[in-house]
Design a protein that fits this description.
binds 4'-deoxy-4'-aminopyridoxal-5'-phosphate; alpha/beta; about 400 residues; about 15% strand; 14 helices; 4-stranded antiparallel β-sheet; globular; 17 strands
Length: about 400
């Protein structure tokens, strides 16, 4: 209850019922600390960063760079030079495709992704393959919703230049064995990008221990604001890559004859960044650190276990994604009822879930379904809310069957 009080949005009724928010894999709610950081910045410190010498510019720059250091520690990175601010996971992946991809992946080279990917970790690689004549290969998904690691091993060869997979599946909650994926890729000389959109709020990340080459995440999925994300990249790779966008801040010197580029990380941060949201991201990271990721994960795991047990007792309900290692995401279908109808009728009862393909259309096709209903839990959710979901579903079934 103390944690719930930190999230003002939870204190409201929807359609006459206390809100139950179970769409956390899409975006998490924000604690007052994050909301206050945004207000404080605009009320007291608003200025453009890095070039100003007046007090407001100094304050804004100091707080912006303090987030970079907080993110460095959050990811276990060696240096803040390796922390690039983006607008989110999608931009981080596109940055790598457009710079590393354009320079180091050519005709006939191979890129491996997986059948569990979000569209944002599929389409940028398809675009690159189309442009370069490279080849996209896909690790298949088992009936449990796990990656088929035997096939993965057989896909690896010196032709593979990049492996890009998510740490956690947003649609099913599967936690992928990324350390093994990374080590096996490195053994054939391939680099690895991990889409951390769904892992960064649940699992402690140590990019150095993982030896991962690129790791991307979004602020809004870790209790921070929308519009800000992070791309971690190994320094030697970032140095070898061309810039992403051209403009102010990313340059050292500009002349019409020749322009030289700024040092890391600024080489990849053209233009005025999303200063307020970057600053507020630190408040989100601090919030997670104070509670502790292990404590958050333990609470969410308990909710997942309870919800799974209760859902399985509902007749005609089938859980999609039964991997041994999962985060707090439960996706299911109910015989004869369209997920969208479930979503609408749960919303009528104040319960917010996600329905549809979850931006993973190939995965839905793999399971031969149009979509699922997905409940995803966060630190502020409770067992009583899971009970509300179960009662809500029983009511939906009674109405529609
Ligand atoms: N990858 C995964 C696994 C995701 O869940 C999401 C968001 N649903 C993304 C990438 C894209 O994140 P964003 O929209 O914040 O860029």
């Amino acid at each position: 209850q103390k944690i719930r009080a930190d999230f003002p949005v939870l204190d409201q009724t929807i359609n006459g019922k206390q809100l139950v928010y179970f769409d956390n894999a899409a975006t998490t709610q924000k604690p007052s600390a994050v909301i206050n950081a945004l207000v404080h910045y605009y009320q007291t410190d608003n200025a453009n960063i890095h070039r100003g010498i007046h007090t407001l510019a100094e304050r804004a720059t100091r707080d912006f760079e303090a987030t970079r250091e907080a993110v460095r520690a959050f990811l276990g990175a060696a240096s803040t030079e390796e922390i690039i601010f983006t607008s989110g996971t999608t931009q981080g992946i596109n940055l790598v495709a457009s710079t590393f991809g354009r320079k180091f992946i050519g005709e006939g080279d191979e890129i491996i992704i997986s059948g569990l990917e979000h569209h944002s970790n599929i389409v940028p690689w398809q675009m690159l393959c189309e442009e370069k004549g490279s080849i996209l290969k896909v690790i298949p998904v088992t009936d449990e919703g796990e990656l088929d690691m035997e096939v993965y091993a057989s896909l690896l060869s010196p032709n593979v230049k990049l492996v890009a997979v998510n740490h956690v599946s947003n649609a099913l909650g599967t936690i992928n064995p990324i350390k093994q994926i990374i080590d096996q890729a490195h053994a054939v000389g391939a680099k690895v990008l991990i889409d951390g959109a769904q892992s960064s709020s649940h699992i402690t990340i140590d990019v150095q221990a993982l030896d991962v080459d690129f790791y991307a995440f979004s602020g809004h999925k870790i209790y921070g604001p929308t519009g800000v994300g992070v791309l971690y990249g190994k320094k030697e790779l970032l140095n070898a890559m061309p810039p992403y966008m051209g403009g102010g801040e990313m340059i050292k010197e500009v002349s019409f004859e020749k322009t030289t580029y700024n040092e890391l990380p600024y080489k990849f941060e053209a233009g005025t960044p999303n200063i307020a949201d970057v600053i507020a991201l630190k408040a989100a990271i601090d919030y997670i650190n104070v509670i502790g990721k292990e404590n958050i994960a333990a609470h969410e795991d308990a909710l997942l276990a309870y919800a799974t047990e209760r859902l399985l007792k509902i007749e005609g309900l089938r859980i999609i994604g039964t991997a041994k290692e999962k985060v707090s995401v439960v996706s299911f279908v109910i015989d004869g009822i369209h997920p969208q109808d479930i979503g609408v009728l749960l919303d009528n009862q104040g319960i917010a879930v996600r329905t549809g393909h979850h931006c993973t259309q190939p995965l839905m096709k793999r399971f031969n379904i149009v979509g699922t209903t997905r409940a995803s839990f966060a630190v502020y959710n409770t067992i009583e809310e899971v009970d509300r979901l179960i009662t809500g579903l029983e009511r939906v079934i009674k109405m529609l069957k």
